C-alpha cells in the first residue's frame, strides 16, 4: 500500500512492517499506540523504524492512518484518570472542623 508520511511516499505492506518490527523492544507508551504481533508499540517508534526518519518529521496521526489501513489495531491516547479532589486549605479545613456559625 502506498502512503505518505512526512511528505514522502512509502510502499508499506503488513508483512514488511511485521518484519521491520521483529526483535524491536517496545518503548513505554505515553500516547497513541499500535499493536504489532503480540506487542504494543508507541506510534512514533513504529514510524521512525518503518520510515527511517526522525520522529519530529511526522505526526502520530500519519502513522496511525497508515497502520490502520494496513490492518493493525491502533489505540488512542490513554484516558486521563479522574481528577483528584482538590485539597482543602488550612483555613477551609479548620472551618469545616468547627462547623458553620449559628444565628441567634
What does this 3D model show about the protein?
The chain is of the alpha+beta class. It is built from 4 helices and 5 strands. It is elongated. The model has no long low-confidence stretch (mean pLDDT 86).
Task: Give the helix/strand layout.
Elements: E1 2-5, E2 8-11, H1 14-21, E3 33-36, E4 39-42, H2 43-51, H3 60-70, E5 73-75, H4 90-98
Antiparallel strand pairs: 1-2, 3-4, 3-5
Shape: elongated
Beta-strand content estimate = 15-25%
Helix content: 25-40%
> How widely separated are the two ends?
81 Å
> Count of DSSP helices?
4
Structural class given helices, strands, pairing?
A: alpha+beta
- Overall pLDDT metric: 86
Largest sheet: 3 strands, antiparallel
Give the oligomeric state of the chains in this entry, treating copies of one chain as homo and distinct chains as hetero: single chain
What is the succession of H and E elements?
EEHEEHHEH
The poorly predicted ranges are none
Number of strands: 5
Give the strand line-up of the largest sheet: 4-3-5
Gyration radius from CA atoms, angstroms? 24 Å
In short:
With 104 residues, the chain is α+β, with helices and mostly antiparallel strands.
Q: Key terms for this structure?
A:
104 residues; alpha+beta; two-stranded antiparallel sheet; 4 helices
Amino acid at each position: 500500500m502506498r502512503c505518505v508520511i512526512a511528505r514522502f511516499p512509502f510502499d508499506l505492506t503488513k508483512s514488511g512492517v511485521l518484519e521491520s518490527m521483529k526483535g524491536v523492544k517496545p518503548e513505554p507508551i505515553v500516547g497513541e499506540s499500535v499493536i504489532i504481533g503480540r506487542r504494543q508499540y508507541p506510534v512514533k517508534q513504529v514510524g521512525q523504524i518503518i520510515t527511517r526518519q526522525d520522529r519530529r518529521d511526522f505526526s502520530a496521526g500519519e502513522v496511525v492512518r497508515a497502520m490502520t489501513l494496513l490492518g493493525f489495531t491502533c489505540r488512542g491516547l490513554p484516558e486521563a484518570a479522574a481528577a483528584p479532589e482538590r485539597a482543602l486549605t488550612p483555613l477551609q479545613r479548620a472551618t469545616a472542623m468547627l462547623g458553620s456559625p449559628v444565628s441567634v
